[in-house]
Amino acid sequence: MNITIVGTGYVGLVTGTTLAELGNSVYCVDIDEKKVEGMKNGIVPIYEPNLEEMFLRNIQSERLFFTTDLKEALDKSEVIYLALPTPPGEDGSADLSYVLKVAHDIGEMMTEYKVIVNKSTVPVGTADKVRKVIASKTKIPFDVVSNPEFLREGFAVEDSMNPARVVVGSSSETAKDIMAKIYQPFTNTGVPIIFMDEKSSELTKYASNSFLAVKITFMNEIANYCEKVGADVDKVRLGMGSDDRIGHRFLFPGIGYGGSCFPKDVKALIKSGKDDDFDFQILQATEKVNIAQKVILVSEIEKYFKGDLEGKKIAVWGLAFKANTDDIREASSLDNIALLTAKGAKITAYDLIAEENVKKLLGDKIKYANTMYDALEGADALFIATEWPEFKNPNFDLMAKKMKNKVIFDGRNMFPLEVADQNGFYYKSIGRKTILN
Ligand code: UDX
């Protein structure tokens, strides 16, 4: 099949590459000329494990093309995926202007039947809006389908090649048949394709992300309570997760959830609810708890230094919002750095992958180290903000040598308590007892 993808951001690029890998001819359209030129020359504009290999393979096999010309791509394709940004507005609602602008252009340019697929995370009712905009520009038949994306950053290729499910919202039998054909390589291997109406499909995406945000936040509250009563959240987590109605995943407590999806989607669902006179009480509580959780260790750091952080040298390990990505959107590291700096602390950060993005944002307001150990030179304390695998088994002797004080505040529970204890560190993590060395 010939497919156009409009928007080569995270979702668009991964979806396009995946659909090419499944044997389709895919035309990726973007308004950014420099980016398109780069992609034509084999430059992948984002960091994502295993993407480059698949991207280059499909360019070479002449199944993956890039252009700034929407009309050219449109004329070649029966199916058009919209993978455009839907940034949150001031009030948290998703801004649909990019999606509706392209819908308008498609309406003006199309000369035969098309299926328009909404891949972006869009509020309930967006398929109807897109339909209306296109219908106002053309009499040619078309269908609008909702097909939300569930991939995780850092696992985008793995997730998009092995989806847990494919959700398709469509009220047209023709469009359903076309979507079933596109995803046949998946359904053939047992991946369920779940058909529903457009609105239910749109809500499925928000409900899934919000539920996971609630799950994490619930565990963060349990962790905070563990500290109050002297329980160990790692034990509670294992005990709870063994019930397969609960499951082990997304029960890891820490310094809150971040990234481009959870915070935005929770906010947007609360706002959509408000617009429909509906009060999402659980989500409002989740948002509030998460904001506080992100900086929960700062008061502990202050307590340790008896309220005086002026001139204290704090090393920060990890800047990305989670491991395996260079994405720093809504990263807890940034909230902590802002707060610690405001209280007079001096930050030296280390993150091999995300450093460049933080530099663009913070410049020389903080220092950057080339290795995780260099960051510790003369440090009064270490703060761990991201669960990069390289932090899991550090050389504690070398750490002790470099640091002024053997003190760790760990927002991601990287070490077993006994390991920190045996190595003689003061160790404060989340939902577990503090090791008072
Ligand atoms: C998420 C969804 O998982 C994905 O299905 C959707 O399409 C987009 O949003 P992503 O934002 O890439 O993906 O990251 P994810 O791995 O889900 O983590 C989100 C946040 O939750 C991170 O800040 C992570 O550190 C935090 N998290 C995750 C926890 O604090 N504890 C956990 O147990 C799991």
Tell me what you see in this structure.
The chain is of the alpha/beta class and 437 residues long. It folds into 3 domains: 2-196, Rossmann fold (3-Layer(aba) Sandwich); 206-292, N-(1-d-carboxylethyl)-l-norvaline Dehydrogenase, domain 2 (Orthogonal Bundle), CATH 1.10.1040.10; 295-428, Rossmann fold (3-Layer(aba) Sandwich). It is built from 18 helices and 14 strands. The protein has helices at 10-21, 33-40, 51-60, 70-76, 97-109, 126-135, 156-161, 173-182, 184-187, 198-229, 233-241, 262-275, 281-294, 296-304, 332-342, 355-362, 396-402, 417-422; strands at 2-6, 25-29, 64-67, 79-82, 114-118, 142-146, 166-169, 193-196, 313-317, 346-350, 367-368, 381-384, 407-410, 426-428. The strands form 3 sheets. The protein has a 6-stranded parallel beta sheet with strand order 3-2-1-4-5-6, with helices on both faces. It is elongated. The model has no long low-confidence stretch (mean pLDDT 96). Uridine-5'-diphosphate-xylopyranose is lined by residues 149-153, 209, 212, 216, 250-252, 254, 257-259, 261-262, 321-322.
Continuous helix count: 18
State the major sheet. Answer: 6 strands, parallel
Describe the global form: elongated
Approximate strand percentage: 5-15%
Distinct small-molecule ligands in the complex = uridine-5'-diphosphate-xylopyranose
Rounded to the nearest angstrom, the distance between the terminal CA atoms is 64 Å
Strands of the widest sheet, in order across it, are 3-2-1-4-5-6
The CATH homologous superfamily of the largest domain: NAD(P)-binding Rossmann-like Domain
The CATH architecture of the largest domain can be given as 3-Layer(aba) Sandwich
Structural class: alpha/beta
